[in-house]
Known about the structure:
This protein is an alpha/beta fold. It contains 8 helices and 15 strands. A hairpin with a 4-residue loop joins strand 7 (168-171) and strand 8.
Amino acid sequence: MGRVMSRRTAISVALLAAFAWASEPDGAGLEPGQLPASWISGGPNCVSVPDWQVHEYNDNFYILRESGCINYEKPFLYLIFGEKKALLEDTGAGQVQTAPFVMSLLEKWAKKTNHAPVQLMVIHSHNHGDHTAGDKQFQAMPEVQFVAGTPAEVSKAAGIANWPADPGTIDLGGRVLDVIAIPGHQDASIALYDRKTGNLLTGDSLYPGRLYVSNFEAYVASAHRLAEFARTHNIAHVLGTHIEQSATPYLDYPRGTTYQPNEHRLELTRANVLELDEGFQSMKGTPEKLALPEFTIQPQAPRQRANAPASAKQN
Ligand SMILES: [Zn+2]
Ligand SMILES: [Zn+2]
């Protein structure tokens, strides 16, 4: 009896050891990083709010947030460093000095990492005014590689042969980003996937807030393509370009809010990518508003699209 028990125990221990080995998290080969539990939104006292909040996810992946005191859209920008190039996604909203600030970050990065200066490449999550306000500042700098927010220019820069069906890539030197065309919120919308960190940047097409649909058919197809991508890749975090949602499920801050003391975290997950696709599929071809705990799919009526002033469409 005692011998049988001990054999069983030995087998159990061996099985447990095997399971422990099999399930031991290895990070899926991704470079880890940290995200803050909360961000500065803007206010309540704008005098003491910095124009930019910079968060180092890790040494070579920065997240910038523009202050809501400059513009209520308070967008997030991404600055990713490779061996040869740094990529900036988006240039800000409203009256903002983005270029001098980003160039100073490049200098600080080079000093901190003891790396030779790298060339800056500027690209856009999509071509709406709250993500392109600093474009002219960068276009005036000949040393910067500026990619305009059009399907043609993005396709050229990322080697996309057939927009939007085919993916492309951008090589920053030892760091490759996948470029997935996801039109629907806007014609030139893209997602960027950083193979190093596993972070998926989804722009205004998926973030904790109101996802405005301008081209329904295109958005449905894009959400499906993005879900297929998420199914076959390790996604660490899904990072968009705004936070409009509060930490309370289904509850968002009204458009134009500057100070959001209880806002949702920036990061969404791979599951939310699948949820977006599922949400669109559930509409069966007819655009409708769909509120989910962490974001809302918000089709824009054709009448609104045609008559709304430019500022109301840009989000
Ligand atoms: Zn937008
Ligand atoms: Zn936006």
